[in-house]
Design brief:
four-stranded parallel beta sheet; alpha/beta; about 220 residues; about 10% strand; two-stranded parallel sheet
């Protein structure tokens, strides 16, 4: 799992944002110890708080690289705050060993249910997921903030099949993209990719254990 977090959102309740990030890293490690599911946090900066704020968060996130934080992101209104102004923050994050994943970046992490809840589309069937795939856009299926959107990644895959008409090959391709675009370790990526291919080939009983591990993507 790669949860997208912005610690300052919790600072009113939990104190200093840097300490909140540390708490999140500790909580993720505890969850991994209990469940066996790997977790790498995607620490985001807020475009509206400016390049200096983003640079600060890139440095803070980089301090946890390889120790619970895997990726640096950028959230907010892309039209009002273009990504170019944040190049220094992303350079800093990359130098620390983090993946760079600005919101609305190259790989589109989509949650059709969230888009409906937020009023972007009226119904799931209006979502352009099929058009994105047909155009060659790299897409992954994801959940969203559970306080706002009542869905899971598995449910998004099921809706993509039932409501949007995606077939097994398309769903498998999306799952492969989620691995390729993630910060998951190589051995997990390889075993999960093999599990996806085994599922696509109709061998569900042999892949049950691997499918469980692939949730870490």
């Amino acid at each position: 799992m790669e949860p997208h977090v912005f610690p300052p959102l919790l600072s009113r309740h939990l104190g200093d944002p840097a300490a909140v990030l540390e708490l999140m890293v500790e909580a993720a490690a505890e969850a991994t110890a209990v469940t066996g599911v790997g977790i790498g946090l995607l620490v985001s900066a807020d475009r509206s708080r400016g390049p200096d704020g983003a640079l600060r968060w890139a440095r803070l996130a980089g301090g946890w690289a390889g120790r619970g934080v895997a990726t640096f992101g950028l959230a907010g209104d892309e039209n009002r705050f273009p990504s170019g102004a944040f190049s220094s923050a992303f350079a800093t994050a990359r130098q620390a060993g983090l993946l760079a994943a600005p919101h609305a970046g190259v790989v589109c992490d989509v949650c059709p249910t969230s888009n409906v809840v937020l009023g972007v589309y009226e119904t799931i069937t209006d979502h352009p997921l099929r058009q994105l795939l047909s155009a060659g856009v790299r897409v992954t299926l994801n959940a969203d903030d559970p306080l706002l959107v009542d869905t899971t990644i598995g449910e998004e895959y099921e809706r993509a099949r039932r409501k949007l008409g995606l077939d097994d090959a398309q769903l498998a391709a999306i799952a492969h993209t989620s691995l390729q675009a993630s910060a998951a370790p190589g051995d997990l990526t390889s075993s999960a990719a093999a599990a996806i291919e085994a599922w696509l080939g109709g061998e569900p009983e042999q892949t049950t254990r691997q499918e469980k591990r692939s949730d870490a993507s």
